[in-house]
Design a protein that fits this description.
The chain has 4 helices and no strands. The chain has about 120 residues and is mainly α.
Length: about 120
């Protein structure tokens, strides 16, 4: 019996559950945000961890910026503009965090707000 063939092995687990693009984006934000939060908390013991977490957060936001700037993006133009602004703000704020003049908690809060939107919870009050 071939264990890699689910037809030949009816007890085999399916590869992965089907996830929507929105859920994938949420999971990416969740992973990056968790790493950023933990790195901020442990910044004194492991400063390189914070640098890497800020880099990963920036990479996520650069990807979002490229996507929302694309003419094929289906989001409303006002939301696309807001997301692009958050990209710019996040990159500028990350520089301040690296300089030691700002907290990464602002970036964590921004990401959590986006995650609430991806879950359909709307804006926080």
């Amino acid at each position: 019996m071939n264990a890699l063939n689910p037809i030949a092995n009816p007890y085999a687990q399916p590869d992965a559950p089907v996830r929507s693009e929105r859920m994938i984006e949420y999971e990416l934000f969740a992973r990056v945000t968790r790493r950023l939060s933990l790195a901020w908390e442990g910044r004194k013991a492991a400063p390189n961890g914070l640098v890497q977490a800020l880099h990963d957060n920036g990479a996520l936001w650069r990807t979002i910026a490229v996507d929302v700037a694309s003419s094929g993006n289906g989001l409303p133009s006002a939301l696309r503009a807001q997301l692009f602004y958050l990209h710019e703000f996040s990159l500028q704020h990350a520089r301040k965090v690296l300089e030691g003049s700002a907290s990464a908690e602002v970036l964590v809060d921004i990401n959590k707000s986006v995650m609430r939107g991806l879950r359909g919870e709307g804006q926080a009050t």
